[in-house]
Amino acid sequence: MCLARIVEVPEGQRLFTEGEKGGEMFVVLSGELASSTHRHGERVALMPAKRGDVIGEVALFHGTRTADVVEPARLLRFGNEDLERLGRHYPRIATHVYRNLKQVLAGRIVSTSAALR
User: Fold this and answer.
1) C-alpha dihedral, 39 to 45 to 47 to 48, nearest 10°
2) Distances from the Cα of 1 to the Cαs of 47, 75, 85, 87, in angstroms?
3) I need a surface site. Which of 5, 59, 77, 110 has the fewest CB within 10 A?
4) Range 25-45 average pLDDT
5) What is the Cα–Cα distance from 65 to 91, expressed in whole angstroms?
């Protein structure tokens, strides 16, 4: 049973673009990803994603990307179907994954709000 897929992003390839539809999130296995968003017509850099960080989690639940991400990296891809499968087969692990995602999302909201002021 496959619960996630490894994705290789070569240098110069964009992983996703702000505003596009998305239904997956990624865990950074290696590399560092630069991300940014637009605010009042200007590009604002967000915190880089490094090994162990989660990216794309907003689109997993909301369906729309909120930032541009581009840089070379090796990632672990989780889609909605992967998380649903995890919940069916390993509910205790899924509870921990969702709890951690909640903390990641809350922390991102706080830090992004502070950066955009």
Assistant:
1) 140
2) 34, 19, 9, 13
3) 110
4) 85
5) 27
CA end-to-end distance (rounded Å), the chain: 45
Query: Quick one: which of 70, 58, 65 has its CA closest to 32?
Result: 70
Alpha-carbon distance 111 to 9, whole Å?
26
* Two tokens, residue 116: 């955009």
| Nearest by Cα to 79 from 26, 35, 20 | 26
Residue 63 has a CB neighbour count (10 Å cut-off) of 11
* Phi, then psi, of 63 in degrees rounded to 5: 95, -10
| CB burial readout 2-25, b (16+ within 10 A) else e | eebeeeebeeeeebbeeeeebebb
- pTM of the full structure: 0.75
